[in-house]
Write a structure and sequence with these properties.
This protein is mostly helical and about 80 residues long. Helix content is about 90%, strand content about 0%.
C-alpha cells in the first residue's frame, strides 16, 4: 500500500513538473510569435511535453483505479 502511495506521489510530482513546463512553453510560444520568430521548435517541444503529460494522467488514473480495486477486494 505504501508503495502505491509513493508511486502516486511520484506521478503527481512529474505531473506538476510537466504542467509547469507546458506553461513555460506556452509563454515562450507567445513571445516568439509576438517577435515574429520561428516557433517550430517550441511547438514541437510543447507537443512532446503535452503528450507526456497526457500519459502521466493515464498512469495516475490507472494507479488510482488499481488502488481502489485492491481496497474494494479487501473489504469484500
Amino acid at each position: 500500500m505504501i508503495r502505491d502511495r509513493d508511486a502516486l506521489v511520484a506521478i503527481a510530482q512529474r505531473i506538476a513538473e510537466a504542467e509547469n513546463r507546458v506553461g513555460q512553453l506556452n509563454d515562450r510560444l507567445t513571445r516568439l510569435k509576438s517577435e515574429g520568430s520561428d516557433t517550430s521548435q517550441a511547438q514541437e517541444a510543447l507537443q512532446i511535453v503535452s503528450r507526456n503529460l497526457s500519459n502521466l494522467y493515464v498512469q495516475q488514473s490507472a494507479l488510482r483505479r488499481s488502488m481502489w480495486e485492491s481496497r474494494w477486494a479487501k473489504a469484500g
